[in-house]
């Protein structure tokens, strides 16, 4: 574990000591080296328990894919942000990269912690760099209200979790995830305790109904903020739910019904919102709410198919939505607008970028044999086994997802070219490299899906 944590921390002095011509290239190459080193965690994956075990940190089949996704995303964020920050003063550029590095450091500690209190502290610590990135480098004046929404939604929902963890500590004397099966009978199984433990993660996902902070944060955030929010920070909620469900469960099924109902209803409602959305980043943000609704449904069923489908969909959605935000950023840098119809017809000017748009649109609507389809199918099967009524909502949600994904592609790439976009900058090699580094893991996971289908193998 230290072979990743120490180089990640050393990225901070490298950022502040590098001269201006070498700042972005040195941090990018160094973070790529860290991402490559993180792939060694795959070698130690075990189906029976924890690996890379230390006093406070360890990895297992649930945390390893999310840890690698976190490390893989840092160089992609640096690559995507370079053009956005080139006019900023040097110290501000250094501070930006430092915040991204701290965010990765906190996320690695959160995903690898074996103590629930340490996980809670890191879960909250990720809020600080995210908040600074959104409020300082956001695009519009509404970034302050977006940061306020993010702060208060997260803090208010996570306070009951802290109280619940203190209560479990008092009753059992331990909050270790590795010894959870032994102290599980000592925990009082109560609906309020279950809700207190899960509410912070349901808001972080976010569940439909407590999702209003997400579109605001996504729309106002700079490109790196949108990427890390969609790809990793939302997955903290799913990871926390899967961890806590091994410790505590509701004393009656009556509490899980409204959660699943909200999640499935959110798939349909957010899909319909996407169909009438004009703002490109807002559309991608609302589609994340719908996909995370499926993940919530899969986790609540507490079956191997549900858990495995949730993990697959979290990894696949992380790569897909991050790539879609990068594509939206390339449009914004050229047209200076997020309105989709003002960017129509770009396929005629930028045909290779249109090919990337088409690829990730198909990934977003879960085209076989991509991991997105594997995850959605596993969750739909587990929900159907839980209650056959869910098939109506998941089936409708799948159709609506396909509809708004194609609507997004047609609105931005096809049609007559707008008059004001007759002269555009060409696409750059780094943008195509960025898209390739998103698509390559998705395609490689098709060939070796057992990396993320741990509960089914």
TrEMBL record:
The gene is ND4. The keyword NAD applies. Its EC number is 7.1.1.2. Keywords: Electron transport, Membrane, Mitochondrion, NAD, Respiratory chain, Translocase, Transmembrane, Transmembrane helix, Transport, Ubiquinone. GO terms for cellular component: mitochondrial membrane. The lineage of its organism: Eukaryota, Metazoa, Chordata, Craniata, Vertebrata. It comes from the Eukaryota. Pfam families: Oxidored_q5_N, Proton_antipo_M. This is NADH-ubiquinone oxidoreductase chain 4. Residues 1-110 form the NADH:ubiquinone oxidoreductase chain 4 N-terminal domain. Residues 113-401 form the NADH:quinone oxidoreductase/Mrp antiporter transmembrane domain. Signal peptide: none annotated. Belongs to the complex I subunit 4 family. It is a multi-pass membrane protein. InterPro entries: NADH4_N (IPR000260), NADH_Q_OxRdtase_chainM/4 (IPR010227), NADH_UbQ_OxRdtase (IPR003918), ND/Mrp_TM (IPR001750). GO terms for biological process: ATP synthesis coupled electron transport; electron transport coupled proton transport. Core subunit of the mitochondrial membrane respiratory chain NADH dehydrogenase (Complex I) which catalyzes electron transfer from NADH through the respiratory chain, using ubiquinone as an electron acceptor. Essential for the catalytic activity and assembly of complex I. One of its GO terms (molecular function) is ubiquinone binding. It is found in: Mitochondrion membrane. The chain crosses the membrane at residues 21-42, 62-81, 93-111, 117-137, 149-168, 192-214, 221-242, 254-275, 282-301, 307-327, 348-366, 386-407. It comes from Cynoglossus melampetalus. Its main location: mitochondrion. It catalyses: a ubiquinone + NADH + 5 H(+)(in) = a ubiquinol + NAD(+) + 4 H(+)(out). NCBIfam families: NDH_I_M (TIGR01972). It is an enzyme of class 7 (translocase).
